[in-house]
Amino acid sequence: MSRPEDILPPDLYYDDNESRKYTTSSRIRNIQADMTHRALELLDLKSPSFILDIGCGSGLSGEILSQEPAEQGGPHTWIGMDISPSMLDIALQRGVEGDLFLADIGQGVPFRPGTFDAAISISAIQWLCNAETSDVSPEGRLRRFFEGLYASLRRGGRAVCQFYPKNDAQRTMISGAAIKAGFGAGILEDDPGTKNSKLYLVLTVGGGGLQGDITGVVDGMDDVDVQDARRKAMQRGQGSVSRKGDKAWIKRKKEQQIKKGKVVKADSKFTGRKRRPAF
Amino acid sequence: MKLLTVNFLTCAVKTCKGSPAAFPLHFRDVELELHDVEFQPDFIRNIITRVDWEGLHKMANELNFPTIPEVKPDGEALQSEQLLRDLHRLLLETQVAEGRLICGNCGHEYMVKEGIANFLLPSHLV
Fold first, then answer.
1. Which CATH number fits domain B3-125: 3.40.50.720, 2.20.25.10, 1.20.1530.20, 3.30.43.10?
2. Rounded distance between C-alpha atoms, residue A101 and residue A84, angstroms
């Protein structure tokens, strides 16, 4: 399957023609609407909120935010950022209600700290893994984006970013950058293992009335299996606290030497034992 | 672009981060428009706590708007429908159509065309 990310930078790929195709294709519109509803479900907003739409494109998901019925906490007011002028032009023609910005999310998020209740992003942040010129790097762009996003969300706020990573390395790079910026991050995968599998990066900002991280977010949702990688990572961390010179360290070193084929003294009850203080 | 949005905008240039002069952005040659937006008292009550009142004052002065209360309304005052409607008109319905936004710290100009602000920066300013 061809990936637009591999063809051209986003502002050039989504030209007038491609933007029109994207916006008028009923298949894409349906998928986009489904993903936006899923993201809204994860955001779990109780009252009309101020939302940042990252990579808003022609405002397909923004429209859904504006039309959210009152009994589900809507309608929300949103601000959209996108790098493609053609996409924004179509959004303008369609008369969307949110404010639009022509901006590169890899350059940061130009809002005051604590501006937004929530942020949403549909199929956009994988573009950050591309660096189009030699003076920027994917890591730098991801760092600026997530730091800016972290600052612009209020305490207790949430962000849900649906994205298409090219491979596991990109997936780790993106979630790692989010964690480094201070977010509590988790990934929700819908329809795993199928062609339609969708990844949602669920980010939480500490403080406020939110309990913890993604495990708190999906708590009470049906059909969600939680795989907590943190516990495993912690156990691994505890196992390797052997210090240089102690018994475990000596044994490990001896094993290494044996594997290399060296002659090593057999272990005895005195191996790695402390000497008595000698007078 | 709604005046509410302008109240949250800061300069995107790296050296302006954390500088007090980078907020609020100053208007130059702006054309304003009135757009009908659905009245949502709940949203205004939610957002008003985060609005920078001093910045709003400066903005209203630059645009020659009269009558903005000296202090930010809160608590009881937010029950008054008239006040909420005034705020709604000012923050959500008044929108910037054309013009420039200028950073008070570095002087960078952001163009606004048809309500869309251009925040793309040349790479040496990022």
1. 2.20.25.10
2. 10
